[in-house]
Amino acid sequence: MDYQKIYKNLIERAKTKDRKKLKKDNSKYVYFENHHIKPKCLGGNNDKENLVLLTAKEHFVAHKLLTYIYLNNRKIALAFHKMAFSNKKYKPCSRDYEYARKLISITPVSKETAKKISIANKGNIPWNKGKHGLYKTSEETKQKIRNSHKGKKRSIEHTENWIKSHTGFKHSEETKGNWSKQRKGIKQSKEHIRKRTESINGEGNGMFGKNIYKIWIEKYGDEEANKKLEKFKEDISKINKGRKHTNISKQHMSIGQKNRKKKKCIYCNKEMDPGNLGRYHNEKCKYKK
After folding, report:
1. CA distance 11 to 51
2. pTM reported for the whole predicted model
3. Strand partners, 35
């Protein structure tokens, strides 16, 4: 069968009908789609001479004919596959469905595309070479992801969903073991600890980049906000329940406390640990006037 001739006749017939795209509210409106007579992947351009208006059915048939004319061309095959499955306007019959699926499976990737894939994966370390050939993400890609998320803040709904999903959740022993290996020698900064505390107490910017307590007040009112804050504290306590310091961490804390410089009370000049001074003694000193 001469598919080239059928394709040519389809295009010529569409050209002779002097079709125009009209607005939907026009009484003579007919749905048309632009079609490249010479596909762009084969050097076609967007000039008027290379464009023709086709109905949805004609456009589908035209792309199917192109797959017969340009055998083993993956880009032509992908265009037809996308038209069959990615566009809600088309509902392919079972025969076309089967043909589109088989076409993609048997059409080889071109050398040019294979080279692009090779360049994209260059330097990536194989992670789990299975059916789909998974790879570790390169440092360059990781940095791009970090930059794309920089400055973004979680919504209050996101925060609430996060709390719900983590309440009562327990990690496996294997996961805990992997964490301990990864975090060996890493210490939480004072800034991180401060933000966690502020988040729970509803102060400052908080852990999630927003003062959730103030947002709750604006959104739900004082009474409902206080209820949510109490619930939030309960959920955090459930998450942290059962967590204990290891002997090594206790040893580090004791060394850190011993090395802390002692401070004097401004009322009685007594030297003591800065934590005890600020928390228990300073404003409660009996020599305070």
Report:
1. 10
2. 0.43
3. 52
> Could you tell me the end-to-end alpha-carbon distance of the chain, in angstroms, rounded to an integer?
107
Residue 206's CB is within 10 A of a number of other CB atoms, namely 21
Neighbouring CB atoms inside 10 A of 225's CB total: 19
Q: Residue 261: name the closest of 250, 252, 274 by CA.
A: 274
Q: Among candidates 81, 53, 54, 87, which has minimal Cα distance to 67?
A: 81
Partners of residue 53 on adjacent β-strands: 34
Cβ partners under 8 Å of residue 35, min gap 6: 51, 52, 53, 54, 58, 59, 62
Match 């080889």 to its residue by tokens.
108
The enclosing H or E element of 82 equals helix 74-85
pLDDT tens digit sequence for 29-68: 888 989 999 998 888 888 888 999 998 889 989 999 999 9
d(CA 84, CA 63): 10
Instruction: Show the tokens assigned to 45.
Output: 């351009």
